[in-house]
Design a protein that fits this description.
Layout: H1 6-16, E1 20-26, H2 31-39, E2 48-51, E3 54-59, H3 61-70, E4 74-85, H4 89-97, E5 110-118, H5 125-143, E6 154-162, E7 165-171, H6 193-202, E8 211-213, H7 220-229, H8 250-261, E9 272-276, H9 279-291, E10 298-302, E11 319-322, H10 333-350, E12 355-360, E13 375-381, E14 384-392
Parallel strand pairs: 5-6, 8-9, 8-11, 9-10, 11-12
Antiparallel strand pairs: 1-3, 1-4, 2-3, 4-7, 6-7, 12-14, 13-14
Helix pairs in contact: 4-5, 6-7
Length: 393
């Protein structure tokens, strides 16, 4: 093994060898579920707390890899880089220049700085972002090693200012974590994968029961369920921003992936049944299921919800999950309300005894639900507040 360079020793001492502070960004209302999910991982430390906007946790660098790979409910994971106080640009510039950016960022980084400011004398977010860009570039040019530099993709820096106190963080995820790397196809008004995963959790879906997704659209529920029953991590098919960091440990990352792959499950027959009346989206979804070798768990059919009978695909009861068409997908409110009433009638007739997860886009539609004893949950989907009903039909 070649001896470490002085730069590698600095990275090992300051980044790899020390505990780091991380922050997990979640959708509103999912903090507790994501916290529970985090603590199920084999982290080096169990120091975690729910705070405004998400979860703070302390751990080693490889814990960040683990969280990005496995968490199904997180939107983004950022690593804290610095905390300081500044009320003028001269002091701010000195603080930024003093951060050892070369330990965090490749020399060739394309940077994007996001700033939020509240009750601060440095309220001009654009000027603050420009100051960061102006001070980081010469620091990297002076200290980051040129030989072997990575042609890095974009790296994002998040700056939060409250009462002149700065928290500077580096994005470890890259694209938002709901982008699993599975879907190249889209449908109108798609549901985010993180929200779909949360709904499956709230509804009590287990890997030993069937799931019917009879208005599947792009198949978000079905693909999330397939990953769950096959024990495939949420981030298995994608890359992350931390993979371009100078501190990235490829051997540790590959070992982590091998550990995950060792518990992948092979199913003897499909237990997830996705269906839609739109033949084009069904063709695209089936191609996705085939491409990522999920056919042992999931089956795609092209059939209208009102003609599909659960007994035709499975003899067992399980979970039926629906995100009914509304808004841009259905048009007028009256038409959406009529469809919702018909949908509930079909569920009553064909899915008696099944567990239900039903998204209700408009609170006025609650009066049209004929089911007793369902629990109501509030979720945020695309910035809109929607209702989720769960229980047994």
């Amino acid at each position: 093994m070649a001896p470490l360079t002085s730069f590698e020793k600095r990275i090992k001492r300051h980044i790899i060898g020390r505990g780091q502070e991380f922050f997990i960004v979640t959708a509103p209302g999912l903090e507790q579920l994501c916290y529970d999910e985090l603590l199920q991982l084999p982290l080096s430390s169990q120091k975690a707390a729910i705070v405004e906007g998400g979860i703070e946790f302390t751990g080693r660098l490889h814990d960040c890899y683990l969280a990005n790979l496995h968490l199904r409910l997180a939107n983004r994971i950022i690593m804290r880089v610095a905390r300081f106080k500044s009320s003028n640009f001269q002091r701010l510039g000195k603080k930024i220049s003093g951060i050892p950016w070369e330990l965090y960022l490749p020399r060739t980084s394309t940077l994007k700085v996001h700033v939020t400011s509240r009750h601060s004398r440095l309220y001009h977010k654009g000027a603050v972002a420009e100051c960061f860009m102006e001070k980081i570039a010469p620091r990297l040019a002076a200290y980051a090693p040129e030989a072997g530099s990575i042609d890095a993709a974009g790296q994002q820096i998040f700056v939060r200012i409250v009462d002149d106190h700065f928290i500077v963080s580096l994005d470890s995820s890259g694209e938002l974590l709901h982008k699993r790397g599975l879907k190249s196809h889209r449908a109108a008004a798609p549901l985010r994968e993180t929200i779909a995963a949360a709904i499956l959790k709230i509804a009590g879906f287990t890997e030993n029961e069937p799931l019917i997704d009879p208005m599947c659209g792009s198949g978000t529920f079905s693909l999330e369920a397939a990953l769950l029953v096959k024990h495939i991590p949420a981030g298995w098919f994608r890359s992350f921003a931390f993979m371009d960091w100078p501190s990235f440990l490829p051997e540790r990352w590959h070992y982590m992936r091998r550990q995950s792959e060792a518990i992948f499950a092979e199913k003897t027959e499909p237990q997830i049944f996705a269906s839609d009346r739109d033949g084009a989206v069904c063709v695209e979804l089936k191609a996705c299921v085939d491409r990522y070798h999920l056919t042992d768990a999931a089956q795609v059919m092209c059939q209208d919800f009102f003609k599909l009978e659960p007994a035709d695909v499975t003899k067992r009861t399980g979970l039926v999950v629906l995100n009914p068409p509304y808004g841009m997908r259905i048009g007028e409110r009256e038409a959406a309300a009529g469809l919702f009433t018909e949908l509930c009638g079909k569920l009553q007739r064909s899915y008696a005894g099944w567990k239900l997860a039903l998204l209700v886009p408009d609170v006025s539609l609650l009066d049209r639900t004929p089911f007793d004893g369902l629990a109501t949950h509030h979720l945020f989907h695309g910035g809109l507040k929607v209702l989720l009903l769960t229980g047994r039909i």
